[in-house]
């Protein structure tokens, strides 16, 4: 598709796709530090306030898989542009909101747009960059947006809320979204997809969307009855996919060891790493006494180290040692950092910063390797759904990690009634870091057992897909 495309044009397309992806990732965390200001301004109840965060996660996580499949069928560029436009418009409505209900609905709409836009990005990148070395470089750039986005969001959220007001945590998306839309029309290649006549499994789409939405809600809100219902829906979805003539998620993908292994490793890895960010933000504010702005600043070294690792070293290390070795080694560094944090005693520069730097480097090389493994053996006709799948497992891991680590820290803190409250909080957070390390140890163990040193060609689709017609935007 992109072999005849000039290097500069491919680079611009990659920059646009990654900028849009970064904006979507930022929005999952940029609002977090603004929640107290939003509550005071719009009169949210404590229970209602959580929906400013949860509404986005539910829509985003629930629609990633179907969004990726839609990209395969109707064209990934078309889905990307539609999602980016919706996300940008919803950001404007959220920024203008003077009512709690309007803000929650606009956050849900942001999640829908974010899912449509981000689900197809990885599939577009691997199609634009078919050469292994160039693809590894491009995936490194994309992985930076995924790995560093949450930390950058905390920094930006603290700065915007303190310098201006909470409305700007949404307004900041407008110039980025508009510029990305204009440039995407010009530099991102158009594709037709295989066509809706190839079939969209509507029942399967409803089942998996409901399952993931209900599951993310259940984990985020600790409603365990809903989690059981989500599991039942997921089982029904799997049965449907085995019987459907044109399944939403072809089960043949799971016969590829790299796809299955990478997605399970992603759940465990993100559960540990995103849960760790949530716990550390609380530690910095509740134990060290930092305000919202300085909490964001304290995370600044993380995206900087991730940038050096993912943009400057990940592709070279992967080319030299292979993605499996780089993945397992990077995760090993993250585990060491988390274990160091289990001994944290109160000083940011001596106890918190060194593990953050170690973990940032480990994540910066591990995530591009994992993304590459998840897509390496996938047939081009399934690139969209495979991209949506790895993004879905990432969101599921984030929800699991945040819920588990928050519950562990809170329960342990509550049990320490005979000690100073700040020390009880610190002890709870140290235990949470140990649990986070456990998630990563499980990820390394599974990766070592399941992921192979060499990849193999993807199995052919059950039915040949029509050859997509491709045109470059701006050409006849």
Automatic annotation (TrEMBL):
<feature type="transmembrane region" description="Helical">
    <location>
        <begin position="47"/>
        <end position="67"/>
    </location>
</feature>
<feature type="transmembrane region" description="Helical">
    <location>
        <begin position="388"/>
        <end position="411"/>
    </location>
</feature>
<feature type="transmembrane region" description="Helical">
    <location>
        <begin position="431"/>
        <end position="451"/>
    </location>
</feature>
<keyword id="KW-1003">Cell membrane</keyword>
<dbReference type="Pfam" id="PF07690">
    <property type="entry name" value="MFS_1"/>
</dbReference>
<keyword id="KW-0813">Transport</keyword>
<keyword id="KW-0812">Transmembrane</keyword>
<feature type="transmembrane region" description="Helical">
    <location>
        <begin position="200"/>
        <end position="217"/>
    </location>
</feature>
<dbReference type="InterPro" id="IPR020846">
    <property type="entry name" value="MFS_dom"/>
</dbReference>
<keyword id="KW-0472">Membrane</keyword>
<feature type="transmembrane region" description="Helical">
    <location>
        <begin position="12"/>
        <end position="35"/>
    </location>
</feature>
<feature type="transmembrane region" description="Helical">
    <location>
        <begin position="223"/>
        <end position="239"/>
    </location>
</feature>
<feature type="transmembrane region" description="Helical">
    <location>
        <begin position="141"/>
        <end position="164"/>
    </location>
</feature>
<feature type="compositionally biased region" description="Pro residues">
    <location>
        <begin position="458"/>
        <end position="467"/>
    </location>
</feature>
<feature type="transmembrane region" description="Helical">
    <location>
        <begin position="109"/>
        <end position="129"/>
    </location>
</feature>
<feature type="transmembrane region" description="Helical">
    <location>
        <begin position="260"/>
        <end position="280"/>
    </location>
</feature>
<keyword id="KW-1133">Transmembrane helix</keyword>
<feature type="transmembrane region" description="Helical">
    <location>
        <begin position="326"/>
        <end position="344"/>
    </location>
</feature>
<feature type="transmembrane region" description="Helical">
    <location>
        <begin position="79"/>
        <end position="97"/>
    </location>
</feature>
<dbReference type="InterPro" id="IPR011701">
    <property type="entry name" value="MFS"/>
</dbReference>
<protein>
    <submittedName>
        <fullName>MFS transporter</fullName>
    </submittedName>
</protein>
<feature type="transmembrane region" description="Helical">
    <location>
        <begin position="170"/>
        <end position="188"/>
    </location>
</feature>
<dbReference type="InterPro" id="IPR036259">
    <property type="entry name" value="MFS_trans_sf"/>
</dbReference>
<feature type="domain" description="Major facilitator superfamily (MFS) profile">
    <location>
        <begin position="13"/>
        <end position="460"/>
    </location>
</feature>
<feature type="transmembrane region" description="Helical">
    <location>
        <begin position="292"/>
        <end position="314"/>
    </location>
</feature>
<dbReference type="InterPro" id="IPR004638">
    <property type="entry name" value="EmrB-like"/>
</dbReference>
<feature type="region of interest" description="Disordered">
    <location>
        <begin position="457"/>
        <end position="476"/>
    </location>
</feature>
<feature type="transmembrane region" description="Helical">
    <location>
        <begin position="356"/>
        <end position="376"/>
    </location>
</feature>
